[in-house]
Each structure stands twice: as structure tokens, then as C-alpha cells.
């Protein structure tokens, strides 16, 4: 065990009062569990993301009031659940309708809120950030749903005794014009750098074909609608193995690494100076909200469709839609 792991805790044991707090979300919403069709052939569904996005601002466009949507992959004991949580009944109806249009055999049930914790269990977790500037896109083209990789990492026999909540929050990136202008300005500065001639000690060289393709990819991302996105893990019951479980879960997201742009996910395990601050991180996940415990990056419709894809892998601990 490293000195950092000795000094900075990665988990905390829960009391009865803390369990009651974490078992219920403090933020109201509507949660829909989805039961995927077995072996469907839709790798990603970008039209679903486009259909459910709602762009809303206040104060002459300065404040972003667009609804935040939460997609979760949960393993309670050994069973897997896939669910969306939205703040309004209108958005709930949209999700049901649009997913049914894309996958006619899909079925729905009422989802669960809060975290699957019990008295005496431990809780910890981590989050993912983009390894490169988020101007560089993640991989978006797949032959099968990329979330199959995550489902396989949570099969019945992996990480025994550990409950997991993988949470993806996303909200349209509108409002806050100065922040968005700064992001776009940096994107086009990067595009200019990639396309220009590079000065060397022995002269200069033109942009390589790969640099030109990277510039095109960034320009395409900067010119389209984007979402503020956050990915977090809650790891429950793993005790001293919490940090190892976070690394194991983050490995399932390697499928999104883009060899063309060099974009990938970097892992951060929550290890604060004070152990009780881990409870704040767990509360943030239970409440499904953007706050100081999130590390946001921007994604396109296609990137988000890949991150929230409906899995198709055949696995014992997944409840499939019945015909």
C-alpha cells in the first residue's frame, strides 16, 4: 500500500442514519428502468439523444435551465439494471416513446432511486475525465453497443460482494455565453495549430494527414450541439478493495478510446483528506446532480449516444424484454 493510500481514505463505513439518507434521492424525478431486447443490432441511437434534448435558458440566455438527464448502470447484488432519470413527466414520456421507436421490442419498468446501501457497508468511488482536451472527440462508431463492455465487466461472478452504480449525467450546453465562447475559441485555436506548418530546428513541415483529420474532428464537434457530461462510480461493499474496483470499472470504458484523435478516459479515485467527505460524494450520486463532486466535459450527440447505448450482450444477470 502506498503512502497516499495510507493517508487518504478511499471508503467509509456507513451508519444507520447515513444509510437512510443515501437510500433515497433528495432530488425529485422520474426513473424508468429499461429492459433491453436480446441481441438487438442497434450499436448507438443518436436520434434518441436528439429527440429528448430540451434547450432552455433564463435571464436573456445567460442561465442554463435545460433539464439534466441521468443514465445509470446499476448492479444490486448480482443483477444488472439500466435506467434513466429525468426531472419531468414530459421527458419520461419522450424517453419511452423514442426508445420504443428505435428498439420496438424494448420494455420498461419503474426504476429505483438512491444507492443500494445497508448498515455497516462501505462506500467509495471515483469519476472519469477526458485524458485530452475535451475538444478531441471520443470514439463513436461501433459494430455493437459499446456499453456491452461495461455490462460484461459487471457479470455475475465479477467483484463478488460489491454493489456498483455507474452514473452518466448530461445537460445541453447552452446559456453561459462567455464559458461557451471560451470553449469554442480554444477549439479553433487547436484547429489552427493542427493545420499550420510546424517549425523545427532544421526547418518546417506541413501538417500530417492525421493532424488534418484531428482538426476536422474538432471542427465538427465545435460546430454542433454539445452536452455537459459527467461520469461517476459509486462502489459499495468493497472495503479496502474500493480503489481496485474503481480501476476495474474504468477499464470497461477503454472501448471509447479514439485512436484517431488520441482521446481517452482518465480515472480519479475519490480520496479526500477527511473520510466523512466521501459521504458527500455518495450523496451527490444519490441526488443525481451536477455539483462540486462532478468533473464535467463536453460531448456531442454521437459521443453521448455511445455512452448511453442500450446493451445487447447475452448475460445471465440482465433482465431482457419478454416478447
Automatic annotation (TrEMBL):
Q: Which InterPro entries match?
A: DUF8128
Q: Where is the DUF8128 domain?
A: 5-322
Q: Where is this region: Disordered?
A: 202-221
Task: Identify this protein by name.
Answer: DUF8128 domain-containing protein
